[in-house]
Amino acid sequence: MAIFMSKIKYQVASLLGLITFISSFAQVSLPAVFSNNMVLQRDKPVAVWGKATAGDNISVSFGKQKKSTVASNEGKWQVQLDAMPANANPSTLTVKGTNTIELTNILVGDVWLCSGQSNMEYTFDRKIKRYAPPKKGIDSAAEELTATKPDAIRYLYVEKNLKKEDLPTNGWVNGNDTNVRFISAIGYFFAKEIFAKTHVPIGIISSSWGGTRVEQWTPDWAYKQSPIFKDSATTPKFKIDGMHPGQMFDKMMLPMMPYTIKGMLWYQGESNCMVEDQATYPVKMELMINTWRDLFHDKKIPFYFVQIAPHKYTSRLKDAKPHTVESLPLTWEAQTKNLSIPYTAMVVTTDLVDDLTNIHPSYKWTIAHRLALCALAKDYKQKIVYSGPAYQSMKIKKNTIELSFNHVGSGLISGDDQPLTWFTIAGADNQFVLAKATIKGDKIIVEADSIAKPTQVRFAWDESAQPNLFNKEGLPALPFRTSTNVSIQEDFNHKVH
Description:
Elements: H1 2-26, E1 39-41, E2 46-51, E3 57-62, E4 65-70, E5 76-81, E6 87-96, E7 100-116, H2 118-121, H3 126-130, H4 140-144, E8 153-158, E9 169-174, H5 185-198, E10 202-208, H6 220-225, H7 247-252, E11 263-267, H8 270-274, H9 281-295, E12 303-306, H10 327-337, E13 344-347, H11 364-378, E14 390-397, E15 400-406, E16 412-414, E17 423-426, E18 433-434, E19 436-440, E20 443-447, E21 456-459, E22 469-471, E23 480-481, H12 488-496
Parallel strand pairs: 1-7, 7-10, 7-11, 8-10, 11-12, 12-13
Antiparallel strand pairs: 2-5, 3-4, 3-6, 6-7, 8-9, 14-15, 15-20, 16-22, 17-18, 17-21, 19-20, 21-23
Helix pairs in contact: 5-11
């Protein structure tokens, strides 16, 4: 009798387990990137997707739209809502299958993805707790701690969690929710400025992790398919410069794709600089950008990034490779090379460091402002200057070198009204000395008494460089050198072979 009852209990338990298993697949579901309070992207077809039982009829309704589809044999489904104008009036998204999901308080506007390592992860309340107030002006972050935030800006915080199958998030919130304290400070201030200038609802997705390298935000299969890296990606746990790619991408990025977005903001590079990755960094970054654009189904998504700040890398004695004062300028050069990728722009931070031993500049609101200038100029069609002076060309004139620049704006200036700093000049022997640099209209004339026949100039070519060359719009000049013995690509090819 005991054996008989045991069999009955086993059969009942198995039946209940089977019912639970079947019902879990019968339920239509959405990924975690969809929730109440979210922002859907305006002016583009909007992807909505999820899971259900194979063959289930699925309908998605939003506003006056209703789209239908059938779940695939794998239990997946996706529809596209027609492009919609911006709308600050909350609406409801309804998804029906064998059950019904209703998501409320949804706006239509512009969605920006913020990603990178600790300087992008850096929250707007973190500095108050850990660092002294900045030396330059008021502390904008401190003011935001108690300010009332507009409901038309919404935030999605992606947790640093590599164990969940779905995106690790608690969903979308507005700025008055306590979860906003986890949001990237740069994303927060960027959204505030864009909203103030456009009055379009803004959504910020914040997905960053301190200390990560660019490889970790790119899927490993992208390296396997890359003509440049495929020969190094032949084993299951292959490594690129000592790092297997994809950990953060797989858990903190892929589950949100292809959520329809406006653009991407990126602040990363310190960890690649620490491993002396200047030769390969440009192609790795391009691989990541192109892969993300493909997976978000838009090859023209703008990608605006931050050039890492001055820092004493030579004092980092525990890093795997020793650094010279040129390690950081080489990384700056590597980052600048990615401006050749369409729909990109870069922010310079050489003037935003109070302490060269602190790798986290305090002025996240200024960085956000400069990113906002890029977006306002390129995406919102405002006629503004968005970049500091960028080296264009040089001419040797007797014992001087004349430099020409792009992004001069309304003119070149010394930011502190002192003689221009951090210019060096050399002749054919490549021995650089400090130079006198003088603004002459939109040009800069560089010379040194000890160099009779100059051949090249360097600007801000040192990890400690905090130069004073700006345009009149207050944007700092990009570090540069006028010539190099080998290109980064040639150096990379040499490194690979």
